[in-house]
């Protein structure tokens, strides 16, 4: 393999894949992102729903915020703040306790600054995926990775066998690339045939909105 990859494929447009792609592109590497979903975000995705009275509602149904204790990450966050992609959240966060049927405060998590995407959590990934040097392809699920020794490159094809191109390097940021979940969804073996600990957890989300809150908010605006 060439010591320096000039063309890299990144599988997954969540926050890890998007940040990786951004970093590579800033260093002069041509990056192509492949994301099976309709848009970027991953665990920082945002969903839009319409209420019965035709109001548009938005839910950050993955990560509601993020924190950092790493200097390098905090420097990156300051850059995002300057671009208007994130802002510090200075209000309260709450969690609904199913057992007590009450909302409880999240502030016990610590005093670290909490950041949110502007206007939604997926805004960060969306902006990073649109940076110069990055081509983003959504709705594309990588089905196979094959190392071609004579080409000194990786060959990628989608789940339908369509050629996606050849790359000097591949970054797999989506765990479905090497997990059995890929087989459950597609009926085919994962693109990467490696074994990992099957230690995933299923979380269910309930999207609710409070009409009284929307009314009071609109009055304040």
UniProtKB/TrEMBL annotation:
<keyword id="KW-1133">Transmembrane helix</keyword>
<keyword id="KW-0472">Membrane</keyword>
<protein>
    <recommendedName>
        <fullName>Amine oxidase domain-containing protein</fullName>
    </recommendedName>
</protein>
<dbReference type="Pfam" id="PF13450">
    <property type="entry name" value="NAD_binding_8"/>
</dbReference>
<dbReference type="InterPro" id="IPR036188">
    <property type="entry name" value="FAD/NAD-bd_sf"/>
</dbReference>
<keyword id="KW-0812">Transmembrane</keyword>
<feature type="transmembrane region" description="Helical">
    <location>
        <begin position="200"/>
        <end position="217"/>
    </location>
</feature>
